[in-house]
Amino acid sequence: MVSGAGWLPHGYHLDPHTHDQGQLVYAAAGTLATTTVRGTWVAPANRMTWTPPGFAHGHRFYGRSNARLLTIPLDLCGRLPEHPGVFAVSPLLREAVLVLTDGRPEARPGAHRRLLAVVVDELCDAPTQSLHLPEPDDDRLRTVTDLLHADPARPATLTEPGRAAGASERTLSRLFHAELGMSFHQWRTMLRIHHALAHLTNGMSVTDTAVTCGWSNPSGFIDAFNEVVGQTPGTYQAALRNSPAVP
Question: Which residues form the HTH araC/xylS-type domain (predicted)?
């Protein structure tokens, strides 16, 4: 496994695999989704994903993406979480990752290693930005989440998918809290935000994204997106257009 960079087309994906060392993946332009048995983490251009050594994972990129892959040696992995996650990208962290992945030779012996230590230091201080969508083990709950994955804009209650799962709305509601640590409404909102990030990154308008992902009006979508992502959909798209990584 090596560090490096490359432009990837919309929808490009890597099937589940593992690495002997840790891995940071950063979409300097575009949006990245990293999926493991624990669920999916989404990272727009102001965040990056972390996967520990030996943890099976796959990647999918949305929008034309400037993908940056950075290997973290085993001796530095102990300072980072033992589970996958997403970190906010500070200006220093961004520039360090860009330098370490652009293929330039070392100016002085050990320079890359010293810069890699700066990356780890920045990650230790960076707030985690989960954007995490957990996945269930219970077969009844998985039936419901599979239906919602296929159509995030499905109606608001658990009644209809509950019939397909052979479980009552009350049972499913309890399972969402017990297995996934969130309510059905919270889980579905996160699912819709994941889909919205992909659509916005690929150039869909804010209004069309809201309708496609199941919001009854754009204002509700904007409020939910801002609460989860920390910026409005319009601001997010403007940042994509103005990114210095976009040719």
Answer: 142-239
Tokens of 59: 């990647």
The model's pTM: 0.80
Q: What is the pLDDT of residues 11-36, one digit of tens each?
A: 899 999 999 999 999 998 888 999 98
Provide the token pair at 23.
């891995």
Q: How many CB atoms lie within 10 A of CB 180?
A: 21
- Write the CATH number of the domain with boundaries 135-242: 1.10.10.60
Q: First-to-last CA distance in the chain? A: 27
Kindly list the strands in the beta sheet with 13-17, ordered across the sheet, starting from the edge strand earlier in the chain. Answer: 13-17, 57-62, 31-36, 39-43, 132-134
> Where, residue-wise, is CATH 1.10.10.60 in the chain?
135-242
Q: Can you tell me the distance from the alpha carbon of 215 to that of 38, in angstroms, rounded to the nearest whole number?
A: 27
Q: Which of 220, 151, 140 is nearest to 180 (CA)?
A: 140
Q: What CATH number matches the domain at 4-132, 2.170.190.11, 2.60.120.280, 2.60.120.10, 3.90.190.20?
A: 2.60.120.280
**Half-sphere exposure of residue 156: CA atoms within 13 angstroms, side-chain side:** 2
Mean pLDDT is lowest, of 84-88, 123-127, 142-146, 175-179, for: 123-127
Helices in the chain by DSSP H: which ranges? 74-77, 91-101, 111-125, 139-150, 159-165, 169-180, 184-201, 206-212, 218-229, 233-242
